């Protein structure tokens, strides 16, 4: 039996009321509360997100506000968004209290902030405008007690990230213990991207990072773009949504690489 329009609207209104009280809601809990399926709740959250009433995260949703800047990525960057959220949630598990981390501009890493705001004394460095504004909102609301450092420079609209000479100069003076980044593609030999400015920024970033974590979905695997960033074996960990391919296992230089499949 289908729910009436009034029942659906009433449920969605109550979801927003619950979100207003708790700041975060979960699909399974909402399904149990309202006696509907998780698929029904996901449709509710999809609709509410389209109206700018909340922001979906993996397994649920968090608050948004009319004051918050909403960033619209192009079609390429919106592909596999649910997978990117899962990858971001896994990546965030490797961040510890008191860490100094770099979050690279891009749609995959931009999913990480909601999973990091509970970390204590965390220092976040980023060239991503959306990431900086998200943490700024957390700080304004008293939800994040860490430091936020923005890398300045020239704006790349495609990634909503800063790059160029000014950004590179800032990176030279910064050292982080963990860097989380994505890419345009990766093969057993190389990590690459389709933008020269992004490649230069990523090289500078990796040179000043103790632990390098590549976060990329399976659609990037086996893809080789024009601009090389670094050899794959130079990263410490890959977080992706597929297992290490059998044909890649013959590359002995990858033996020290930690491959994590969600």
TrEMBL record:
Keywords: DNA-binding, Transcription, Transcription regulation
Official protein name in the record: DeoR family transcriptional regulator
PANTHER family documented for this protein: AGA OPERON TRANSCRIPTIONAL REPRESSOR-RELATED, HTH-TYPE TRANSCRIPTIONAL REGULATOR SRLR-RELATED
GO molecular function: DNA binding; DNA-binding transcription factor activity
InterPro entries the UniProt entry points to: Carb_Metab_HTH_regulators (IPR050313), DeoR-like_C (IPR014036), DeoR_HTH (IPR001034), NagB/RpiA_transferase-like (IPR037171), Tscrpt_reg_HTH_DeoR_CS (IPR018356), WH-like_DNA-bd_sf (IPR036388), WH_DNA-bd_sf (IPR036390)
Pfam families in the cross-refs: DeoRC, HTH_DeoR
Organism: Paenibacillus kribbensis
HTH deoR-type domain residues: 8-63
Presence of keyword Transcription regulation: yes
């Amino acid at each position: 039996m289908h729910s009436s329009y009034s029942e659906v609207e009433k449920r969605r209104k109550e979801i927003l009321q619950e979100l207003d009280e708790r700041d975060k809601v979960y699909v399974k809990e909402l399904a149990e509360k309202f006696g509907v399926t998780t698929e029904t709740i996901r449709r509710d959250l999809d609709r509410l997100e389209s109206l700018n009433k909340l922001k979906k995260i993996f397994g649920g949703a968090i608050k948004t506000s009319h004051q918050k800047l909403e960033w619209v990525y192009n079609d390429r960057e919106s592909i596999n968004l649910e997978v990117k959220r899962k990858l971001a949630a896994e990546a965030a598990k490797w961040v510890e209290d008191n860490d100094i981390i770099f979050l690279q501009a891009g749609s995959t890493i931009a999913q990480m902030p909601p999973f990091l705001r509970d970390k204590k004394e965390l220092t976040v460095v980023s060239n991503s405008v959306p990431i900086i504004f998200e943490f700024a909102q957390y700080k304004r609301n008293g939800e994040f007690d860490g430091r936020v450092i923005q890398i300045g420079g020239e704006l790349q609209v495609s990634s909503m990230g800063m790059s160029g000479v000014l950004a590179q100069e800032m990176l030279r003076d910064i050292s982080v213990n963990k860097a989380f980044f994505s890419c345009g593609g990766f093969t057993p030999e190389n990590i690459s991207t389709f933008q020269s400015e992004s490649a230069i920024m990523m090289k500078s970033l990796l040179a000043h990072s103790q632990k390098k974590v590549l976060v990329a979905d399976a659609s990037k695997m086996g893809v080789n773009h024009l601009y090389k960033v670094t050899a794959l074996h130079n990263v410490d960990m890959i977080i992706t949504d597929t297992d290490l391919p059998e044909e890649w296992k013959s590359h002995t230089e990858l033996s020290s690489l930690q491959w994590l499949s969600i």
